[in-house]
Amino acid sequence: MTKSKKSDTAKNTKTREVVESSGNVFLDLGFNEESANLLLRADLMIAIVEIFDAQNWSNAEAAKALSVRESRISELRHGGVGKFSVDLLLKYLARLGKKVSVTVKDVGQVA
After folding, report:
1. Contact between residue 75 and residue 69 where contact means Cβ atoms under 8 Å apart
2. Of 31, 45, 50, 61, which is the most exposed, with the fewest CB atoms less than 10 Å away?
């Protein structure tokens, strides 16, 4: 005879605290001083991928446009933030015919 187990979700439920975001996920995760750089790299990567998508480019076409290997395009598309410097991402945007402008704001000022 097989006994069936009832799952007791009440015992397995953990209480989670919800904390309002600072607007910078990297800062929220504890990266502190590096958070601004990580957020900037993530924003630049998103902009690059949006350009690829707007052009309906395959990874091969995007790689050709940037003069890189297809594996680099895959890393961009999958959010490999640690694999790209701000300088390199700015170079990629220039190759795509884009100009980047920067706005400096006080800490805590909303975009």
Report:
1. no
2. 50
